[in-house]
Amino acid sequence: EEKIFAKSIEWTLKNLQQLFDSKNTPTIIKNRVFPIVEDVCLMGHSASGHTVVSYLNETCGLIKSLVLFDPVDGYDPFGFIKQFITHPPAQLPFVIPTLILRTEFDPIPKSGIIPACAPDALSNKRFYDSLPGPKWMLNFTHYGHGDFLDDFAVKYVVSTICKTCETDCDFDMYRTNIVRAVSLFYQGITKRNKEFIQGLENPNNSGFFDKKINILSTYKYNGYDVLKTGPFCFHS
Fold first, then answer.
1. Which residue from 171, 116, 122, 180 is spatially nearest to 148, judged by alpha carbons?
2. Is residue 8 located within the same domain as residue 47?
3. Are residues 130 and 231 in the same domain?
4. 81 and 13 share a domain?
5. In this entry, which stretches build a coiled coil (predicted)?
6. How many other CB atoms sit within 10 Å of the CB of residue 132?
7. Helix crossing, 194-201 with 171-190: angle to 10°?
8. Span 38-97, pLDDT tens digits
């Protein structure tokens, strides 16, 4: 799995420019969207957090920052197959600015039969505690593991296996605020923007996020000043 991912991401970054400038490129983006392959930010959701971290265990490549969205380690939520890459308090071998996005309902099972989509012992804080670099973790309360998907998927697919928001829900608003968090992180790191970084650290009073959503923030610099360094990745 990790070897296939490594080949895929290396090919993608090498050929990204021509994907946006070929006869098959959709008109809506051709000559309007220009990919940048410097200061690349790698992002993974749920179990793909295991895959992207496995890749970074071997090499940074062109990756300079990392976003883990509801990351889950191990092999399956039932815990039958134990295949872990994080073993806190042991630290991972790479140092990279990282944003972890999680939700309040990640560790809550949908029912007594199906385990939670992101059990506490396998997810989120497990990754946070294993990362030796500068890191931020935002907990979007009142929402669940798959609530960022489109409304049809949330209603007819996600809600059958994961705990989802059920009352006073605004999924469009939630999705928008997830995008804002990622943007603040990436722009804050690459442009060394103090206001954007502070927006991650005090989200509810920053003015960047919707007042209808409550976000809990945890962060730790671990001795690295991203406002001076910008994005980076290296092996310790």
1. 171
2. no
3. yes
4. no
5. none
6. 18
7. 140
8. 899 999 999 999 999 999 999 999 999 999 999 999 866 666 677 899 999 999 999 999
Four-residue CA torsion sign, 170, 173, 179, 181: negative
Question: What is the rounded distance in angstroms from the CA atom of residue 212 to the CA atom of residue 200?
Answer: 17
Number of domains in the chain: 2
Taking the alpha carbons of 26, 32, 37, 39 in that order, is the dihedral positive or negative?
A: negative
Same domain, 181 and 228: yes
How many other C-beta atoms can be found within 10 angstroms of the C-beta atom of residue 29? 13
Q: Are 28 and 74 within one domain?
A: no
The amino acid present at 156, given as its one-letter code, is Y
Residue 41 token pair? 């930010």
- 125-169 per-position pLDDT tens digit: 999 999 999 999 999 999 999 999 999 999 999 999 999 999 999
Same domain, 75 and 32: no
Judgement on whether residues 51 and 152 belong to the same structural domain of the protein: yes
| Domain co-membership, 104 together with 16 | no
| Amino acid making up residue 127 | F
